[in-house]
Write a structure and sequence with these properties.
The complex is a heterodimer. By secondary structure, chain A is mostly helical. In chain A, 90% of the residues lie in helices and 0% in strands. Chain B has a domain of 178 residues. In chain B, 75% of the residues lie in helices and 0% in strands. The two termini of chain B are 23 Å apart. The relative contact order of chain B is 0.14. Classes of the chains: A mainly alpha, B mainly alpha.
Chain lengths: 42, 299
């Protein structure tokens, strides 16, 4: 049965979604830290 | 406590790897669906985690709404206690037990009801004041991520088993989609509205949104749907090895969700700090503000 590709698709999709979300968290963290540093310099 | 986060991260990674091994290698193959049924080990724990996060969001939102008025806070406290006491007593009354769906154990219902006052007081104690609002936005956002996974893995599972990606009109599927849309609108409201009432409006929306969670959960008990019956507590018979793998997988996802929530919580605190610093900086830059005695440099 060719259904095994659906199983891997589901598992890969799950981790892609988590990786994407974690990526946005990291990006937001670095942007805020940079912003805070810039305000501190002024 | 700085060592706790790395240790928990390593523990979570090990548990996730172990859960993956259990799901792909150890758990037996389903006689009807074959290997594709193994999607259950990601689909169901993601759904349970999303429900739990939306429940925490619901409790935090209620506490935030009633927190402004001492009389409302006191009334909410007694209502929650009453729900706990009456709910637990009611589950042991035979007439009420007969009303429960077939296979649902009264002890499980009583434990779930007890969770309401317990979590209410615990969350109120651990997250005072504005931290309740931070917790609400954190759990909503991470909950949406897990709910997205449910909505993505569901159709991928449905295609080889049902022959279709989506069963239009199916109450379980539709109510889950509605739940996702409610919390996405909650996040959009918080993102794009800048008024002073945004937090209160968002909390009110979250309370109504959470009402959809029981509808999603119980829809397969009370309605005829394409979606399979519950695997736990619904009278279904699941192989003990499958159940074991499912619970390990859920534990791994719970730990993972906790770590993600912790990071998102810190991000929200940092965002508010930056916002405050911006306000202070602009106040310091304005000519009228220079004479203010309250002028202070940003943190």
């Amino acid at each position: 049965m060719n259904a095994i590709k659906f199983l891997f698709a589901a598992y890969i999709a799950t981790w892609l979604i988590h990786a994407f979300y974690l990526g946005t968290l990291v990006r937001r963290f670095s942007r805020l830290r940079r912003e805070l540093k810039e305000i501190g310099k002024k | 406590m700085k060592w706790l986060f790395p240790i928990l991260s390593i523990l979570t990674a090990i548990l996730l790897a172990y859960a993956l091994y259990q799901a792909l290698v150890v758990a037996p193959t389903d006689a009807l669906q074959g290997d594709v049924y193994r999607i259950i080990y990601y689909h169901v724990p993601s759904a349970w985690t999303a429900f739990l996060l939306f429940f925490i969001n619901f409790v935090a939102s209620i506490e935030y709404l009633v927190g402004a008025k001492p009389s409302a806070r006191s009334a909410a406290k007694w209502i929650v206690i009453a729900i706990g006491v009456i709910g637990v007593i009611a589950t042991f009354i035979p007439a009420v037990q007969q009303m429960l769906p077939n296979g649902m154990r009264p002890t499980a219902v009583a434990t779930t009801i007890l969770l309401i006052p317990t979590s209410y007081f615990l969350i109120g104690k651990l997250f005072p004041g504005q931290r309740l609002d931070v917790l609400a936005v954190t759990t909503a956002e991470v909950g949406v991520v897990f709910c997205t996974i449910v909505l993505v893995t569901g159709p991928i599972w449905a295609r080889p088993v049902w022959g279709v990606w989506w069963a239009p009109g199916d109450i379980r599927l539709t109510s889950t989609l509605v739940l996702w849309l409610i919390y996405v609108s909650y996040l959009m409201l918080r993102r794009f509205s800048s008024g002073s009432q945004t937090q209160v409006l968002a909390a009110a929306l979250a309370v109504f949104g959470a009402l959809d969670v029981p509808l999603v959960y119980f829809s397969i008990w009370f309605f005829r749907t394409q979606h399979p019956q519950p695997v736990i507590g619904g009278g279904g018979s699941m192989d003990p090895r499958m159940l074991h793998t499912l619970l390990i997988s859920w534990m791994a996802f719970l730990l993972f969700a906790f770590l993600v929530c912790r990071s998102r919580f810190r991000l929200e605190l940092l965002a508010r700090e930056v916002e405050e610093a911006h306000a202070m900086a602009s106040l310091a830059g304005s000519p009228a503000a220079t004479s203010l005695p309250l002028h202070r440099s940003p943190k």
